[in-house]
Amino acid sequence: MPTISMTVNGKSVSGEAEGRTLLVSFLREELGLTGTHVGCDTSQCGACIVHVDGQSVKACTMFAAEAEGAQVTTIEGMANPDGSLGVIQQAFQDNHGLQCGFCTPGMVMTAADLLKNNPNPSEKEVREYLEGNLCRCTGYHNIVKSILAAAATMRGEQVAAE
Amino acid sequence: MYAFDLVKPKSLAEAIEALQADEAQPLGGGQTLIPTLKQRLAMPGSLVSLAGIAELVGISASGGVLSVKGATTHGAVAAQTDFPGLAGLAGKIGDPAVRHRGTMGGSIANNDPAACYPSAALACGATIVVAGKDGTREIAADDYFQGLFTTALEEGEIVTEIRYPIPQASNYQKFEQPASRFPLVGVFVAKFADKVGVAVTGAGENGVFHWEEAEAALASNFSPEAVEGLTVSADGLMGDIHATPEYRAHLIKVMTKRAVAACA
Ligand SMILES: Cc1cc2nc3c(=O)[nH]c(=O)nc-3n(C[C@H](O)[C@H](O)[C@H](O)COP(=O)(O)OP(=O)(O)OC[C@H]3O[C@@H](n4cnc5c(N)ncnc54)[C@H](O)[C@@H]3O)c2cc1C
Ligand code: FES
Ligand code: FES
């Protein structure tokens, strides 16, 4: 099996991958980064979303070998260096943006992608950007609220606690 | 998925060379092909990845024509400002993560009967440029789209570029099938100085088609009212659990009127 290399969450890594090995399998099985989830495996749910060279992609719909040499960020890379929750993750906790948490890695990665390009999104823009992320239990309301709160925090604004 | 080799050529010439191998197939963004492979509906010997070929990526506008290279992503098309109607179409394909990977060449090569881009290509009279071992061919959209998942593309050829004459005004209206997010019916209206193009996707049993009556009516009176008196026949339209042919016929007219209104 060929060996491939990439940078994942700032660290150079390498591992074995066949042509057909999906990026999500490489991350989870070869690198042991199981924070990235597989919800549907049919490109619909977004639980597997990671960033490749700064853009959100469905890791179940990309081959690992296509990410050779790329900068990959997974949910494990979203925490602060001391291990505490990053701003978006903390906002999900504060706003009850998750219940079972299965969809949450993908939600957080999509939110990070949105906020990088649009630091002050409207509620409508957040909802539209979540089009490819399905949640089966929280309902989208608190997820949207979490992302708007994270955006406000990142802009340095105080958010009124409820 | 069955096993295959993933080949990553650096140039178009290398890609064409690699595609001459037995059972070789191009890999664009993989947003259609990878789900197909997972269902074991395809068994390629090798996949030739186009994403890393610099000469196959990019958008440029000159002389009233927008040129989009084959491996350019939907996201990049959505971000360009020279042809707003096409940007609007691209920005509604799937979701952000799909748009970061999926490519125009992949969509045009696949010619799914519900794909969005073929409607823009047909309405604008685009030229599809394809390259293979015998050189390059330029194919008019009217000759290129030949039915469900069928095009003028030959085995071993790559869609390298799509050239769209940029309309004076244009708009795409998509009535989404909410589960797949593909259009149940999509209509692209393109207004040029001397003609109007109206192309319909998601509805035809033979894939994308011109709504010729609307093109003629709108050429002399470019307003939603010009379409009002027309009727779309349900003959030759798709029927499935999502919509009957009659419902699709109705939607074609509604979407066309909305697209014309949005052009104003
Ligand atoms: C959740 C979801 C929602 C979607 N919604 C929509 C939608 O609303 N509208 C829409 O139009 N599409 C939609 N799509 C499909 C998406 O646009 C695909 O990106 C597109 O159809 C195929 O492009 P690709 O680059 O991913 O091609 P691939 O999947 O890589 O390839 C598709 C086919 O084209 C061939 N191919 C690829 N590139 C080339 C080339 N340059 N030259 C010749 N052959 C080539 C491949 O061999 C394969 O047969 C959706 C997909 C998903 C997963
Ligand atoms: S697991 Fe990738 S989209 Fe659902
Ligand atoms: S929190 Fe359970 S699926 Fe979203």
Bound molecules: flavin-adenine dinucleotide, FE2/S2 (inorganic) cluster
Q: What percentage of amino acids of chain A are in beta strands?
A: 5-15%
Structural class of chain B: alpha+beta
The strand count of chain A comes to 5
Strand and helix order of chain A: EEHEEEHHHH
Please identify, by name, the CATH architecture of the largest domain in chain B: 2-Layer Sandwich
Question: So, the CATH homologous superfamily of the largest domain in chain A?
Answer: Beta-grasp domain
* Largest interface in this structure: A-B, 26 and 27 residues
As a percent range, the share of helical residues of chain B equals: 25-40%
Mean pLDDT of chain A: 96
Strand order of the largest sheet of chain A: 2-1-5-3-4
**Tally of strands of chain B:** 14
Low-confidence stretches of chain A: none
The average pLDDT of chain B is 97
Topology:
The complex is a heterodimer of chains A (162) and B (264).
Chain A: E1 3-8, E2 11-16, H1 23-30, E3 49-52, E4 55-58, E5 71-73, H2 87-94, H3 104-117, H4 123-129, H5 140-154
Parallel strand pairs in A: 1-5
Antiparallel strand pairs in A: 1-2, 3-4, 3-5
Helix pairs in contact in A: 2-5
Chain B: E1 5-7, H1 12-19, E2 24-27, H2 33-38, E3 46-49, E4 59-62, E5 65-69, H3 74-79, H4 84-90, H5 96-101, H6 104-110, H7 117-124, E6 127-132, E7 135-140, H8 141-144, E8 145-147, E9 150-151, E10 158-165, E11 169-176, E12 183-191, E13 196-201, E14 209-210, H9 212-220, H10 224-228, H11 245-263
Parallel strand pairs in B: 1-3, 2-3
Antiparallel strand pairs in B: 4-5, 5-10, 6-7, 6-10, 8-9, 11-12, 12-13, 13-14
Q: Could you explain the architecture of this structure?
A:
The complex is a heterodimer of chains A (162) and B (264). Chain A folds into two domains: 3-77, Beta-grasp domain (Ubiquitin-like (UB roll)), CATH 3.10.20.30; 87-154, DNA polymerase, domain 1. Chain A has five helices and five strands, in the order ββαβββαααα. Chain A has helices at 23-30, 87-94, 104-117, 123-129, 140-154, and strands at residues 3-8, 11-16, 49-52, 55-58, 71-73. A five-stranded mixed β-sheet of chain A has the order 2-1-5-3-4, with helices on both faces. In chain A, strand 3 and strand 4 form a beta hairpin. Chain A is globular and about 50 Å long. Chain B has three domains: 5-49, Uridine Diphospho-n-acetylenolpyruvylglucosamine Reductase, domain 2, CATH 3.30.43.10; 57-165, Uridine Diphospho-n-acetylenolpyruvylglucosamine Reductase, domain 3 (2-Layer Sandwich), CATH 3.30.465; 169-263, Enolase-like, domain 1. Chain B has helices at 12-19, 33-38, 74-79, 84-90, 96-101, 104-110, 117-124, 141-144, 212-220, 224-228, 245-263; strands at 5-7, 24-27, 46-49, 59-62, 65-69, 127-132, 135-140, 145-147, 150-151, 158-165, 169-176, 183-191, 196-201, 209-210. In chain B, the strands form four sheets. Chain B has a five-stranded antiparallel β-sheet. In chain B, a hairpin with a 2-residue loop joins strand 8 and strand 9 (150-151). The radius of gyration of chain B is 18 Å and the shape is globular. The chains are: A alpha+beta (162), B alpha+beta (264). The A-B interface holds A 18-20, 22, 41-43, 46, 49, 55-58, 61-63, 65-66, 68, 110, 113-114, 129, 131-133 and B 1-6, 8, 27, 30-31, 34-35, 37-38, 46-47, 49, 51, 75, 94-98, 100-101, 181. The structure holds flavin-adenine dinucleotide (FAD) and FE2/S2 (inorganic) cluster (FES) (2 copies). The site of one FE2/S2 (inorganic) cluster has 11 residues of chain A, from loops.
